[in-house]
Specification:
This protein is α/β, with parallel strands linked by helices. It has a single domain, classed as Alpha-Beta Barrel (TIM Barrel), CATH 3.20.20. It is built from ten helices and eight strands. The chain has helices at about 5, 20-30, 95-100, 110-120, 135-145, 160-170, 185-190, 195-210, 225-240, 270-280, and strands at about 60-70, 80-85, 125-130, 150-155, 175-180, 210-220, 245, 285. Strands 1-2-3-4-5-6-7-8 form an eight-stranded mixed β-sheet. The chain is globular.
């Protein structure tokens, strides 16, 4: 198991990357809010003027923050900060009360959240949700006020624009990603995510160039052939020496009952087949 944080220098690397400082990155991210293109929907909403985009996030609201011991072993203890709102609308979302309600939680000023980060004893800061992408400007602003050099984890569905990925370059130490689908049709059906494969494979390749990478894949019932195997095969072929977490804890939540094929728990044979396929590919499994 790699000790990522023993070898990484944390967010200090961002000071020099691309000859731009962290405050300059934060400023560029804020400018994007006037015609939002943080995620690849590129809805162009003027969020600075109160216009709602697909995610319906107008201001960063934090539903919870705590020291998390349930993440991958190499990450814990992880100071997780959960934002409300999401760039997806997954029918089976287990955190739907957070992801589909952008008004959930409270607004915490950048300086205050930075002080909270400075005061916590953790291996890293874990930006999650919902989805952190709509809150990228706030996150970068927070980091300009953080005094200690603590590694950053970007816990995301990876449906970001190249502009957003560039802003994260040099800031993120570990990408903790959610590689959901091996099929564009499934991504569109269950998450309303057009061009999923093109976007997510591109961003995983970029993430691997920028930082360390841990990939999660939640096995969906009835989707081992169309989603699990293509996703794992692409990871094995294109992302060398990354950790992969094949997760079998699917349960039919939120609107899953509207889709008969996923309105059940994963059976033991499906989870075994997914895990054995990952082993056959030679993946470094969590």
């Amino acid at each position: 198991m790699p000790d990522y944080f023993a070898i990484l220098g944390g967010r200090a690397r961002a000071k020099y990357l691309g000859c731009r400082t962290l405050p300059e990155k934060a400023g560029q991210a804020r400018s994007i809010l006037s015609s939002c293109r943080l995620c690849v929907r590129r809805c162009g909403a003027d969020r600075a003027a109160g216009e709602l985009g697909f995610c319906r996030v107008l201001e960063p609201r934090i539903s919870s923050e705590f020291l998390h011991f349930g993440e991958e072993p190499e990450l814990v203890p992880s100071y997780t900060i959960f934002f409300a709102g999401c760039t997806f609308s997954c029918a089976f979302c287990q955190n739907w009360d957070i992801s589909q309600n952008p008004k959930n939680g409270v607004r915490i000023k950048a300086e205050t959240l930075a002080s909270m980060i400075d005061g916590v004893s953790a291996r890293n800061v874990n930006w999650v949700g919902g989805e952190p992408t709509p809150n990228l400007p706030h996150i970068l602003e927070v980091l300009t006020h953080v005094k200690k050099n603590i590694p950053q984890v970007w816990n995301s569905n990876m449906y970001l624009t190249e502009e957003s990925m560039e802003l994260l370059d040099g800031v993120v130490d570990v990408y903790l990603t959610d590689f959901k689908y091996g099929s564009d049709a499934c991504a569109l059906k269950y998450s309303n995510a057009p061009k999923y494969w093109e976007v997510v494979t591109r961003n995983h390749a970029l993430a691997r160039e920028q930082a360390e990478l841990i990939v999660r894949h939640l096995v969906l019932p009835g989707h081992v052939e169309c989603c699990t195997k293509p996703a794992l095969a692409w990871i094995a072929e294109n992302l060398k020496n990354v950790r992969v977490n094949i997760m079998d804890q699917y349960r039919p939540e939120y609107k899953a009952r509207e889709f008969p094929d996923i309105n059940r728990k994963l059976d033991r044979n499906e989870s075994k087949e997914a895990y054995e396929y990952g082993k056959k590919l030679g993946l470094n499994l969590v």
